[in-house]
C-alpha cells in the first residue's frame, strides 16, 4: 500500500515535470511513472489554472481588467513553457498541406508557419477577450476550470484514439489510460471545475455552459486531425487542450450574456 502511494506521488511529480516548467523535487524516476502520470493531467491543469487565477485576482486589485488578464495568461504561458500552444500552432501548420505524410512532416518542423501563427494569435486573442469580459472572480474560476478540463480533454483523446507516430514526445503516454485512470482523471477534472465555480458563486448552469463549450472545442479539434491522420500526435493533444480551454471560456461568456 505504501509502495503504491509512493508510486502515485512520483507519477504526480512526473506529470508536473512533463506538462510544466515548475520546479520539481528530485525523485527516483521510472519510465512507468510517465505512463501513470496521465491520470494526473487534469489536477496539474487545475494547479496551473489556480496560479493564473491568483495572479489575475491580485493584479485586478491594482490594474484594469485587460492588464490583469494579460498578466494571468502570461504567467500560465511561463508555467507551461507554451507547451500546448506549440502543439496548436504545429497542428494548424500541418493542416495547410494535403497529404498525411507531409502533414506529419510539417507538424514535426519546429519552425512557425503562417497558419500556425494565425491560429495561435486567434486563440490567445479569444481567451483574453472572453476573460476580460468577465468579472474577476468569474474569470478566476474559468481559468481553473479551463485548464483542468482542457487537460482532461487531452486524456480523453489518449484513452479513445490511436497514437500514429513511431516515436515522439507523447509516445510514452500512448495507451497509458485504463478505465480506472480515466475515471480518476474525469473525477479530478470535474471536481476542480466544480470547486472553482462554487468559490466564484457561479450556478451549476454556468458550469454547464462552460462544459458545453469545452465539449465543442474537443469535438472541433478531433474533427481537424483524426480523419486526416487516423489518430493523434503529441501536437494534437496540445491543440485539443487549447481549443477545449478556449471553448470553456466562450461557453461561460455566452451564459453571462444571457443570464
UniProtKB/TrEMBL annotation:
GO terms for molecular function: adenosylcobinamide-GDP ribazoletransferase activity; cobalamin 5'-phosphate synthase activity. Keywords: Cell membrane, Cobalamin biosynthesis, Magnesium, Membrane, Transferase, Transmembrane, Transmembrane helix. Its cofactor is Mg(2+). It is a multi-pass membrane protein. Pathway: Cofactor biosynthesis; adenosylcobalamin biosynthesis; adenosylcobalamin from cob(II)yrinate a,c-diamide: step 7/7. Belongs to the CobS family. Joins adenosylcobinamide-GDP and alpha-ribazole to generate adenosylcobalamin (Ado-cobalamin). Also synthesizes adenosylcobalamin 5'-phosphate from adenosylcobinamide-GDP and alpha-ribazole 5'-phosphate. This is Adenosylcobinamide-GDP ribazoletransferase.
Amino acid at each position: 500500500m505504501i509502495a503504491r502511494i509512493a508510486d502515485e506521488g512520483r507519477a504526480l511529480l512526473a506529470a508536473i515535470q512533463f506538462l510544466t516548467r515548475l520546479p520539481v523535487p528530485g525523485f527516483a524516476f521510472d519510465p512507468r511513472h510517465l505512463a501513470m502520470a496521465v491520470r494526473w493531467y487534469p489536477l496539474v491543469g487545475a494547479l496551473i489554472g489556480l496560479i493564473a487565477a491568483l495572479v489575475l485576482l491580485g493584479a485586478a486589485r491594482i490594474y484594469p481588467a485587460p492588464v490583469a488578464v494579460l498578466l494571468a495568461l502570461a504567467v500560465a504561458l511561463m508555467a507551461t513553457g507554451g507547451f500546448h500552444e506549440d502543439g496548436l500552432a504545429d497542428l494548424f501548420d500541418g493542416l495547410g498541406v494535403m497529404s498525411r505524410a507531409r502533414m506529419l512532416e510539417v507538424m514535426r518542423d519546429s519552425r512557425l508557419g503562417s497558419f500556425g501563427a494565425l491560429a495561435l494569435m486567434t486563440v490567445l486573442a479569444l481567451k483574453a477577450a472572453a476573460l476580460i469580459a468577465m468579472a474577476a472572480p468569474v474569470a478566476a474560476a474559468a481559468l481553473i476550470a479551463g485548464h483542468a478540463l482542457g487537460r482532461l480533454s487531452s486524456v480523453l483523446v489518449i484513452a479513445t484514439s490511436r497514437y500514429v507516430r513511431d516515436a515522439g514526445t507523447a509516445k510514452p503516454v500512448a495507451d497509458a489510460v485504463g478505465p480506472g485512470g480515466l475515471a480518476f482523471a474525469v473525477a479530478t477534472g470535474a471536481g476542480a471545475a466544480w470547486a472553482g465555480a462554487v468559490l466564484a458563486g457561479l450556478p451549476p448552469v454556468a458550469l454547464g455552459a462552460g462544459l458545453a463549450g469545452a465539449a465543442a472545442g474537443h469535438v472541433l479539434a478531433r474533427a481537424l486531425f483524426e480523419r486526416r491522420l487516423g489518430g493523434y500526435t503529441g501536437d494534437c493533444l496540445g491543440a485539443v487542450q487549447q481549443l477545449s480551454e478556449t471553448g470553456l471560456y466562450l461557453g461561460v461568456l455566452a451564459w453571462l450574456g444571457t443570464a
